[in-house]
Amino acid sequence: MESVSVIGCGNMGGAFLRGLAKAGYDVTAIDLDTDALDRVADVASETTTDVEAAKGSDLVVLAVKPHIVESVLDDVDLHPDQTLVTLAAGVPREFVADRTDASVVRVMPNLAAETGDMAAAATEIGVTDDVRALLEDLGEYVTVEEEYMDVATAVNGSGPAFVFYLIEAMKDAGVESGLEPEEAEVIAAQTFKGAAETVRQDDRSVDELIDAVCSPEGTTIEGMEVLWGSDADEAVRDAVEAARNRSQELSEAFDDA
């Protein structure tokens, strides 16, 4: 892949762009907001407010708010040899494909694209070898039927915020018992990172891994008894469901478009 244009350089688009730049891609940043462009100017090969600049890239990433997707597509005339990766939450792939000549794939990434630790879901339709390579350079991804993109949006797209919330809770517990805030944040965040990597690399199930940490009459089992007796798991499921429902609401706005 020679070049990538990212249209929309806000939180998600900016994180995606920074990850691409770190992975060695030649990235053009496109946004009407010059402040957003300034925030990525240190890593982008070019910054511009002209959406037509995307016509010169092999792959175009559309990372704008759902309600302006149509107007952006009206302003840029992509050609069939290009691939358009849409990151817009809740916007159906077909809605985008009907408004461009480019090949279209819908992807839901997350902010960890910036560090190469992204979790992403992509629609099965539209995934090319170049798209696969790009997603692998930013982290890990799964392909799903589009009907499951709303729940994927909730799990991996919204999920980082839920994890941040839990990290903060563990940090606060450490601080309340005497740790310095910086110390507590480091060990809480690294614990989540290490646990996640263990889940990815270990053949045991999550339940088996919990058992492996819970020595009889030890410290962990005492804490787990509290969690098992609480509604913590239901609260997490409710958070995912709420995010999924909102993604579905966004999608429904495009049903008759």
UniProtKB/TrEMBL annotation:
Domain Pyrroline-5-carboxylate reductase catalytic N-terminal, chain residue ranges per copy: 4-90
Alphabetical keyword list: Amino-acid biosynthesis, Cytoplasm, NADP, Oxidoreductase, Proline biosynthesis
An MF annotation (GO) of this entry: pyrroline-5-carboxylate reductase activity
Pathway in which the depicted protein is active: Amino-acid biosynthesis; L-proline biosynthesis; L-proline from L-glutamate 5-semialdehyde: step 1/1
Gene3D superfamilies reported for this sequence: NAD(P)-binding Rossmann-like Domain, ProC C-terminal domain-like
Protein EC: 1.5.1.2
Chain residues that bind NADP(+): 7-12, 63-66
Chemical reaction(s) catalysed: L-proline + NAD(+) = (S)-1-pyrroline-5-carboxylate + NADH + 2 H(+); L-proline + NADP(+) = (S)-1-pyrroline-5-carboxylate + NADPH + 2 H(+)
Subcellular localization, as worded in the UniProt entry: Cytoplasm
Superkingdom classification of source: Archaea
Stored Pfam families: F420_oxidored, P5CR_dimer
Ranges of residues in domain Pyrroline-5-carboxylate reductase dimerisation: 146-250
GO CC terms of this entry: cytoplasm
Gene Ontology biological process: L-proline biosynthetic process
Record's function text: Catalyzes the reduction of 1-pyrroline-5-carboxylate (PCA) to L-proline.
Family note: Belongs to the pyrroline-5-carboxylate reductase family.
UniProt protein name: Pyrroline-5-carboxylate reductase
UniProt lineage: Archaea, Methanobacteriati, Methanobacteriota, Stenosarchaea group, Halobacteria
Gene name tied to this protein: proC
